[in-house]
Amino acid sequence: MRTKLGYAAGMAVLAASTIAFGGPSGGSISGKVTYEGTPARQKPIDMSKEPSCAQQHPTPITTETVVVGPGNTLQNVVVYISAGAPDESSAPAQAVTITQKGCQYLPHLVPMVVNQELKVVNADQTSHNIHPLAKINHEWNKSQPPGTPPFSEKFDKPEFIPVKCNVHPWMHSTFAVLKTSHYAVTAETGAFTLPNLSPGKYTVTAWHESYGEQTQDVTISGNETKTVNFVFKAKPY
Amino acid sequence: MRTINMKLIRLFLAILAVSAVPTLASAQQMESHIGKVTGHSESGKQLFYRYCWGCHGFRGDGNGENWLPTASFAYEPYLNIQPRNFIAGTFKCRSTPTGTLPTDQDLYNSLVRGLNNSNMPSWITLTAQNRADLIAFIKTFSARWKNDKPADPIQVPPESKLTIESIKQGQELFQKLECWKCHGQEGYGDGPSASTLTDSNDQPIRPYNFASGSRFKCGVTNQDLYKIFMTGLDGTPMPSFADVIKPDDAWDLVHFLRTLQVTQKSPELTLWGSTKEGAAQIASRKISGTPTGSGIKQ
């Protein structure tokens, strides 16, 4: 009898939570990511060892460990719902793409949902190897010579995976594999919006490749838009 | 007095280790299957804490006292290549595709062979049963062995005929796939990217020098060589070429790579040396030095 009651109670809780998430989803969280302090100066990349890539950059590109915008805004920050939203039951049908062009990863940061298809494209006239240094997922390492077709991979556990090309040591990217599709990546303005949220309590996490992560709790009721800002401490080294 | 203390401490540590083992690693039991031999982790545990933990560490994380800079090796660890971290579950020598677990037989082969150019010796002195037991125990360190199954080994088709044409096509492939970026045009392991390479633990790592006369890390046969570049050596910069090389082309590459091993007699080297172009190439790469690799002049 006791177990039956427990079961019933469990079902009730489940049902309640389903109803909560099944409600209106017009709420949203938006805000801005900025930094205080002095960020590390980005260094120009010497691509002279790879002439086919060097030619594509009349002015040398710089490293991208910290990319900032006017008004102390921070670019390349993944902002996502880390708790409160249900895990995605299935991966989005559309693939995300990372392109290797001019010996650079485009985009620099690739967010994706667990088990979502990741398409890897080599648009260069040189060989690259794509080497995600995964710790929770499986580490793999594939060569992609020029002219070979794109290949697809996926990751089945959430993780921020550093990616590198061993042939061109300046090439770095991050695969941000998330449980949720409620994510945004900040552009030059540092602004982000997480739309389509139903009322409830959420934990919002902002992740930056050099400055780590920060979290804030937000409660949304009705169709309101809550503002959440993140400020990272920049270190010059 | 001091030596007695040290002895006592060591004895104490050994007792501690043996007595603490069951609490640490008995969480799961594993088996390994190598041919007709079945290995058991319970037996392997005793062997591991006798032979392996000095390098691979108490927890199997590769942080054994021979690697960690301890008081007696304050400035330099005893080993210059970090021992395998069994918790990560990433292995260089596999017959399976990149990103997948190796088969029991793959791990067993590494134990038999040892890993060349590292401090991992050959464990040929143990019995086959001992080695199988050790493999079973090593698999208890990573949850990957419980949740995952090793993938199907990649198929190695019968070797194509060795011809001069085949060697030349392999040479073209070596250029096209840009193997030379790391391994160098002459296979000396001195390509433009060589000096920047690091393994997945951020430790510097050198590409294989074909002219050094040393064996490959993952076997000596042509089949082994085929597998090395098709599976990639996970945890190192060496990627998998399985998606980009067709099986016949792969054998061409094998034939060509053998001609880069100018200090090792092989049918490929002999055939290549019979051509004018090949003979000149081999002569220009003649190396003076010892077979162990010291004093090599390039």
Describe the structure.
- The complex is a heterodimer of chains A (237) and B (298).
- Chain A has 2 helices and 19 strands.
- With 237 residues, chain A is mainly beta.
- In chain A, the strands form 5 sheets. Chain A has a 5-stranded mixed β-sheet, with no helix packed on it. In chain A, strands 1, 15, 18 and 19 form a 4-stranded mixed β-sheet that branches. In chain A, strands 14-4-16-17 form a 4-stranded antiparallel β-sheet, with no helix packed on it.
- In chain A, a hairpin with a 3-residue loop joins strand 2 and strand 3 (73-74).
- Chain B is mainly α and 298 residues long.
- Chain B is 41% helix and 3% strand.
- Chain B has helices at 2-25, 41-56, 104-113, 128-138, 144-147, 164-176, 180-183, 222-231, 247-260, 267-273, 276-284; strands spanning 31-34, 37-40.
- A two-stranded antiparallel ribbon of chain B has the order 1-2.
- The longest helix of chain B is centred in the N-terminal third of the chain and has 24 residues, at 2-25.
- The radius of gyration of chain B is 21 Å and the shape is globular.
- Chain B starts with a helix and ends in a 14-residue tail after the last helix.
- Chain A binds chain B through residues 49, 126-127, 129-131, 133, 135, 138-145, 148, 151, 166-169, and chain B through 88, 90, 98-100, 144, 176-178, 181-182, 192-193, 196-197, 200, 232, 234-244.
